[in-house]
Amino acid sequence: MLTLKQINSDKEQVIAGLEKKHFQGAREAVEEVLRLDQMRKSIQQQKDTASAEMNRISKTIGQLIGQGKKEEAEQAKAQTSTLKENIKTYEQQMTEAENSQTQALLQIPNIPYSIVPEGKSAEDNLAVKAGGWDIPQDTSILAIANNAKAFDQDGASVALRDWKEEWNPQPAFAKLPHWDLAKKYNLIDFDLGVKISGAGFPVYIGQGARLQRALINFFLAEAAKDGYTEIMPPTVVNTASGYGTGQLPDKEGQMYHCDMDDLYLIPTAEVPVTNIYRDEILEEQALPIKNCAYTECFRREAGSYGKDVRGLNRLHEFSKVEIVRIDTPEHSEISHREMLSHVEGLLQKLELPYRILRLSGGDMSFTAALCYDFEVYSEAQHRWLEVSSTSNFDTYQANRLHCRYRRAEDKKVVLCHTLNGSALALPRIVAALLENNQTENGIRIPAALQPYFGADMIR
RNA sequence: GGAGAGAUGGGUGAGUGGCUUAAACCAACAGUUUGCUAAACUGUCGUACGGGUAACUGUACCGGGGGUUCGAAUCCCCCUUUCUCCGCCA
Question: What is the pTM of this model?
């Protein structure tokens, strides 16, 4: 959540930011938080004064009893009853005010950075870069893309906006969608998954299972090369962790819940791996912390339907390698770019056509300050598939997590920045690999993946 | 799952109702002394929220939550968790 300090000192900027994110009733929400804050402060002043008086009297009583002055002690006791009641009332009011204030703050999303494009929806996302083995290199627009210093050159990025329309690859032969390929090569059995679990829980078989394991190992190895520490966290988390990274309370219905023990199945490794640092004060020299983790991810995906859920496009359980960073505010932007380069490198090594989108204010997640999506092009489905979302949360998550660090310079304790990104989520990568690499003789495995897969083709 | 014993600051650890403003030691940081290193000495050494331009100061926090009391780290209840033993088990 946003800090009170931010809201207090930069009220108008915060409101403008919330409006950029198309948050309804931004001004009212901010005013409400400020009003509750004023209320809380004035109650605290009264309560602190009363408590100070109470402490003073109690101490006196102790001294009087020590001196054997019992009558005077009894007199002093008589003074305390109203005071005691007042304190109790103040405490209740303060708890109430604090709770409403927290509730109000939880309803307010993060504010976007200035380079986030204006806009309401996915239509307004900005393509900042594109690449991949199959993209024609002579298109002038793409030439700009390749020369652009990625991610921070707004002028260059704007020119890329409509590049998708310029590039309409014509497949050499009618390519099959991955659900047909999965059947043809006996890689994935969707019906079997329905039998033993339900829709959205595919069963990977033989080379299909091996491809999963190869991708996981490849992604983890690449992350290790880039200096990430591998974590293997629990796959279920408690409510405190759910609140820490912001899945609770707003996304409660999106997570699977184990009623008996009140635990949630993780929707992403971000949850356990970021919560490692909940309620921690880190030393500045330990930053940036770079962790990666492979986990299964579980999502209820309530409300999804149609072509979006066909095959591997949207699953209830899927494998993902996540990269997570905890950093200082000064360095988090650099960290973000390094993460983007890492993810881009993975897609290049997998030889997939990709584009990178800077999400518009309205399309960003509740908690992000800046977010880039990576999409790969599926030649059989003729559409872009989102395979990674790499975000900087600024202090928004850290504030909720109470994740802070001690500045080396002045020893002050301040909030960290948190960042995370998929590197990568498997299902749509598998879909794109199968669809784009199909030949008459089988499915080609990209060279970088061959050592992990143990073969150059799926036959 | 059953029984018992624990949980105190960055660490070790004292504290069984008011002489605690949580001792002491270690670590850390700053300074003094000193050819250098080391040692010694002195000082600083939590977090959150208030008040104050500031120096400073108030309140809360001893695993978490509730209760008893004028007053709780200390007594009572519930929860979490660690250890030991028993049971079960890959």
Answer: 0.89
